[in-house]
Amino acid sequence: MNRPKYKVREFNNFREMLLQSVTLYGHDPAFRYKNSIGQIRDVSYKRFYTHVNSLGTSLIELGLEGERIAIAGANSYKWCLSYMSVVCGAGVAVPTDKELPFEDIKSILEVSEAKAVIFDKKFGEKLLEHRDELPDGLVLIGMDVKQDEDGIISFDRLVEEGEALIADGHMEYLNKEISDNELTVLLFTSGTTGMSKAVMLSANNICSDIRSIMGIVKINHGERILSVLPLHHTYECTVTFLCCVYGGVTICFSEGLRYITRNLQEFKPHILIVVPLMLEKFYHRIQKAMEKEKAASFKVNVGHAIAKTVGAVGIDANGYFFAKIREAFGGEIRLIISGAAAIDPVIIRNLNKYGIKTFQGYGLTECSPIVICNGDKDSKHDSIGKAIPDVEARLDNRDENGVGEICVKGPMVMLGYYKNEEATKACFDDEGWFHTGDLARADKDGFYYICGRSKSVIVTRNGKNVYPEELEALLVKEQAVKECIVSGVEDEKGATIVYARIFPDSAAVSAMNSNRNVGEKEISKAVSDAVRSVNSKVVSYKMIKKFEIVNKEFQKTTTSKIKRNQ
After folding, report:
1. Side-chain half-sphere of 250: how many Cα atoms within 13 Å?
2. Which of 42, 49, 85, 336 has its CA 20 to 30 A from that of 175?
């Protein structure tokens, strides 16, 4: 277990946490965003607290006290305000993926028994197109609706009227007792939409996770973070939103992945929470820029050596030597945390060399979500880290290579799956350990290394285990490979062999062929060479025996993870 390196405040629910932050950081900016005409606006911690109480009071006035309230839309101040208003006393928040097809949205609303949905304009268009199919009596609250119209309640009006109600003495919301250990957030995990499998989290589940993360990762009051991943996902919600409210950070909002480069320059974040695909794109852009500058690699290595030496005597020279690299992230970047999927450890090692503290962590929606993570004072570039404070972790049923299933215990582990006792019992053993389904090994220092998913492991005829993720990580390092999925299939003799589906990088293949227009023949040869290269690096039973070239990218989740079952 990772021991806390930093002192952390005590709180067990969101209202306690928010009140502490308002007291500490009241007039400092909690949020920074662009309004509809492109002007950058700030909202202070004190103003945010006023808005939370105002909206919460209005939600209770609408008869929604204790009810499930869905929240859907792009990352925004109003999304965060909606979430915090619900979890600070109005009811149960149901964060919903704005990209889902209507049938899945309808299923979430029905399964969660939502009585209201707060939504932005784009999501609202999807709802209104199928209005006749929505659950009876569902209260519709539009973030972008200036005044009530067509049965949609104006979000802005609710905030204004809630403030007036409080001024008139309506204190029900502010005085409401908060239960720390009851259902507060209901989350539908990737791949479970349309089914009754939804994760139940309490306020204390999530707040304990915040406390543990803040014990090993230092974020500084007054720093800025850019929110780029979808807020309905626990990883972004807990780390980018809630941890930063705890720490007095200013949360800025990206306008979308298309505009992230521009937003980095505008908001100049100190911290970024990313998924590997995003970080890989930044890294490769930096590498290309370095290749254009003669002797850039030499300069970086010399700069790193000098910065490390003077750093030992308390002088920070990183800003001087690596200013151009930092500029790619806006110029002020200090810390990058990658999660949600595996990443090439070379990228983490090199970004640290460039003076940007970068590490990875591991978690699941069922665990609020972080349970294993590197800390900024104790990390290894190729590991997901150690169990965070207050989490016990172990490896179950380890094989001859020390690989076993990650099992965890701790206050951040979910209450269970909503109305699904069978699924809940299936993931807990008799001693109360939560079985994650993820496979890993651990070193003598307590650092964990992900090997794959127990459900995706390939078992050969001679009983050997092959972890697809290991081969996928090797394949995507090859120039000709852009994306891939590795799985096990039966050959004509009934034996299980390793099979890869590969989406080639046509631009890279073209560059390999002197930037000529390339056809199927050249692409097939380049991919074959890539598979041969990977096979030369692994033992015989792990070798890819068969592969297929696909002509389009694989479908992904909203956190850019490739969906395996396609």
Report:
1. 18
2. 42
Helix (H, G, I), strand (E, B) or coil at 354: coil
Task: Report the alpha-carbon angle 408-188-486, nearest 5.
Answer: 70
Cα separation of 74 and 143, whole Å? Answer: 11
CB 543 within 8 A of CB 498: yes
Dist CA 391 CA 19 (whole Å): 26
Write the DSSP assignment of 544-560 as a string of letters: EEEEEE-SSPPPB-TTS
- Check residue 563 and report its DSSP letter: P
Q: How far apart are CA 420 and CA 281, in angstroms?
A: 40
Say how far apart CA 341 and CA 419 lie, in whole Å: 29
Distance from C-alpha of 554 to C-alpha of 550, rounded to nearest angstrom? 9
CB of 44 closer than 8 Å to CB of 417: no
Q: Output the six-digit token pair for 189.
A: 């995990």
- Average pLDDT, stretch 39-58? 98
The two beta strands, 481-490 and 496-504, are: antiparallel
Answer whether residue 303 shows pLDDT above 60: no
SS3 label, residue 499:
strand
Phi and psi at 371, nearest 5°, equal -130, -25
Of residues 528 and 490, more confidence is placed in: 528
The values of phi and psi at residue 192, to 5°, are -110, 0
Integer CA distances (angstroms), 63 to 58, 120, 507, in order: 9, 22, 57
Cα distances from 281 to residues 18, 272, 277, 286, 288, in angstroms, run 35, 14, 6, 9, 11
| The pTM of the whole model exceeds 0.90 | no
